[in-house]
Amino acid sequence: MLTADVVIVGGGHGGAACAIALRKNRFSGSILIVGKESELPYERPPLSKEYLSGEKVFTRILIRPESFWVDQRIDFRCGSRVVSVDPAEHRIQTEDGTTIGYGRLIWGTGGTPRRLSCAGHHLKGVHTVRDRADADRMIDELPNVRTAVVIGGGYIGLEAAAALTKFGKSVVLLEALDRVLARVAGEDLSRFFEAEHRAHSVDIRLGQVVDCILGDDRVTGVRLADGAVIDADMVIVGIGIIPEVAPLIEAGANGGNGVAIDTACRTSLPDIYAIGDCALHANRYANGAAIRVESVQNANDQATVVAKDIVGQIADYDAIPWFWSNQYDLKLQTVGLSIGYDATVLRGDPATRKFSVVYLRAGHVIALDCVGTVKDYVQGRKLVESAAVIAPEMLADTNMALKDMVG
C-alpha cells in the first residue's frame, strides 16, 4: 500500500498551493498529490481566455515546472480518480483499485462542470471548459467551426465568447435570465458587458431556454423552447459546477453543496481538510452565510491556512474574496462579495469603458466591480474590509479618491 504523511486529492490551484505552502513552512514529511488529470498542476483561468485564444502555450500556464516538484520532494500520482475515503483507517482508494494511506488528507478536487440535461447534450461538438482536455478538444475543432453557440452568460461563457470572436467565429450567446452576470453582478455591469459583446458582433439572446441540442453523431444546432433553431458547429456550456465531494460525504463528512469546513479548513472527519471550489464555509463577506467561493485566490488562501495548521501554527481563513475577468481589451477586477446587496452606486461613466460599481448592504460597502479602474479596486479593498458607511453621493464622486473616504 502506498502511504504519505500528507496526501492531497486534486492537482489544481489549491492542491499545488498547499504542497508549496507546506514546504515553505518547513514541513519535512512526505507529500503526495493524487490528481485525475495526466498533467502537472496548471492555471485554470487561462483555459477560457489566453489558452483558448492561442495567446499562451501550455508550458506558460504551468504553476511550476517539473523540476520544482522534484526539488521539493513533492510526489504525484496523475491520472488517478479517488472514489472512496476510509477515515477510520486513514486511507483512500482510487478508481483502479489502488489503496493509499495518509496521515493528513487534503481534499481539493474542485468541481465538475454542470451539464445540460436535455436531449443531445452528449453529442460531439458540445463542450464544457474545466480542464486542458476540454480546451484542447475545442481548439482542435475550431478550424471547422463557423458558428458557435455559448449557453450561459456567466464569466466562463462571456470569456469563451470573447475568445471565439478573435478567431472570426460567429457567436450566439444564450442566457436564461434577463441579463448576463445576473447571479454575480448588478445591472450596470451586466448591461455594459452585453453592449461590449454586441459591439464585437456576439449575438446575445436573453431569457432563452434550451429545448434540445440537434444532431445525430455531431451537433448541428440548438432548438430553443419557443421552437426557434440556431445552426451551430460547436456548443459551449458554461452553467456552473457541481462540487466533487461525493467520496467525503459518503464517508460521513458534513456538507451538501460542497463539504463543510471550519475556520482552519478542517472537515468534520478526523485529519481531513478541504479547500477551494468544493469547500463550504461561513464567510463574513457573505454576511456570515455558508458559501463556496470559486476562485484561485480562495483556493490559495485556504491552502496556506491548512499548511500552517498542519505544522502547528494558528491560522484561520478570513481572507477578502477577489476575482478578475479578461474580455477583449477589458479587465474587470472585483473585490468583496455582492451577495445580498440592496443598493449600488455607479462611479464613473460606462461609456468611457472605465468605471466602478459599488455595492451596498444596509448602507455598508460590501463589494466593488472595477472595469479599467485599478485604483478603485486597490483602494476599495479597505472600504470592504471595514464595511465602511459612506454617503452614496460621495462614492459616486470620481474627483475624490476612495482612500480619502476613510480615516
Number of helices: 10
Sheet-strand content, in percent, reads: 25-35%
Q: Total number of β-strand segments?
A: 26
Note the main sheet: 7 strands, mixed
Alpha-beta content class: alpha/beta
Low-confidence regions: none
What level of helicity do the residues show? 10-25%
Radius of gyration: 22 Å
Distance between the termini: 59 Å
Topology readout:
Elements: E1 2-9, H1 13-24, E2 31-34, H2 50-53, H3 66-71, E3 74-77, E4 82-86, E5 91-94, E6 99-107, E7 111-113, E8 126-127, H4 132-141, E9 147-151, H5 155-166, E10 170-175, H6 187-199, E11 203-206, E12 210-215, E13 219-224, E14 229-231, E15 234-237, E16 241-243, H7 246-250, E17 255-256, E18 258-260, E19 272-274, E20 279-282, E21 290-291, H8 296-310, E22 322-327, E23 330-336, E24 343-349, E25 354-361, E26 364-371, H9 374-385, H10 392-395
Parallel strand pairs: 1-2, 1-6, 2-3, 6-19, 8-15, 9-10, 9-15, 10-11, 18-20
Antiparallel strand pairs: 4-5, 5-6, 7-16, 12-13, 13-14, 17-18, 20-21, 22-23, 23-26, 24-25, 25-26
Account of the 3D structure:
The longest helix has 15 residues. By secondary structure, this protein is of the alpha/beta class. It contains ten helices and 26 strands. The relative contact order is 0.12. 23% of the residues lie in helices and 31% in strands. The chain is globular, with a radius of gyration of 22 Å. The strands form six sheets. Strands 1, 2, 3, 4, 5, 6 and 19 form a seven-stranded mixed sheet that branches. A five-stranded parallel sheet has the order 8-15-9-10-11, with helices on one face.
